[in-house]
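User: Could you go from structure to sequence for me? I need the amino acid at each position, not a summary. Structure tokens:
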């Protein structure tokens, strides 16, 4: 049996529906009964568990062969604790194979706010004794739309401290498709897959693509890190100014520039091009709750090893 965590969220919910539609024995894990209502239409059994309650996780993971572990979200210390609890509970419950959504900006030299969180989760998985597959996701196209393009639709300017760096965005829908494919296939051979879009774009090109897709004038303007951080503190609560500022610094350091072929190898097709993603997405998409994914030059590590 396959269990999908975070099933009331976009990625987890999409994975759940894909697996159920293809005839897999799958269950959904949600944090409470209120969230359970969001996944009832998938027709899958629902298990209630809380990332901060290890005993509830062990119960939820009982009898699970494959765990689709969609990463937690929020303040870094809490997310690190949640990830540790899930890995420990999965090992205790005897889960056979864990499929985990990590990030591509995983290098120890990165200053990105969430990098230590995901490095720790990967380390725990490798040391757990369970079989695992890690899907390191690049920068979400949805995040670029929600946090940077959408405000620019009103102002006409996307001002970011990323200089002329490039990114290869991937849509959350494509990440979910990849997770469902890996979960359905089973295995658990200790592989790391880098999931990125098929093209790396400059932010000038991203602004131009958005202008074409939404028929509104948008331009990219390089901003200073100090000015950007000041703006963030006026708009966001802690820790998000630091998270977004460090994300932009990682972009500037070319940690997002990789274009990987791993998605196409898994799905038999390339991930969606960024402008195609924009054209089929409403510009009023609700903001993502937080930053989840970043990127770096493609890792050569495709087998078991230390992070």
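Assistant: Here is the amino acid at each position, in order:
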């Amino acid at each position: 049996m396959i269990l999908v965590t975070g099933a009331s969220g976009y990625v987890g919910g999409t994975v759940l529906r894909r697996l159920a539609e293809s005839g897999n024995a799958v269950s959904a894990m949600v944090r409470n009964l209120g969230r359970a209502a969001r996944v009832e239409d998938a027709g899958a059994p629902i298990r209630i568990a809380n990332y901060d309650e290890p005993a509830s996780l062990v119960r939820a993971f009982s009898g699970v062969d494959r765990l689709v572990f969609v990463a937690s979200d929020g303040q870094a210390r809490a997310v690190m604790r949640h990830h540790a609890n899930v890995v420990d509970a999965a090992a205790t419950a005897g889960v056979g194979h864990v499929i985990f959504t990590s990030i591509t900006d995983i290098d120890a030299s990165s200053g990105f706010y969430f990098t230590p969180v995901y490095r720790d989760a990967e380390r725990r998985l490798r040391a757990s004794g369970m079989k695992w597959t890690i899907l390191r996701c690049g920068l979400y196209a949805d995040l670029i739309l929600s946090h940077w393009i959408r405000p620019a639709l009103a102002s006409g300017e996307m001002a970011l401290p990323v200089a002329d760096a490039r990114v290869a965005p991937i849509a959350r829908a494509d990440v979910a498709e990849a997770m469902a494919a890996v979960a359905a296939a089973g295995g658990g051979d200790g592989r790391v897959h880098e999931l990125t879009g098929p093209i790396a774009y400059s932010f000038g090109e991203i602004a131009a693509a958005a202008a074409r897709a939404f028929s509104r004038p948008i331009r990219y303007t390089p901003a200073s890190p100090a000015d950007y951080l000041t703006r963030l503190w006026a708009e966001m609560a802690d820790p998000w100014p630091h998270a977004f500022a460090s994300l932009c610094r990682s972009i500037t350091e070319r940690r997002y520039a990789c274009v990987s072929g791993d998605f196409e190898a898994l799905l038999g097709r390339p991930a969606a091009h960024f402008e195609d993603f924009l054209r089929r997405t409403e510009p009023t998409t609700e903001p993502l709750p937080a930053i989840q994914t970043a990127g770096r030059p493609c890792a050569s590590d495709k087998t078991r090893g230390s992070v």
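One structural detail worth keeping in mind: The chain is about 45% helix and 15% strand.
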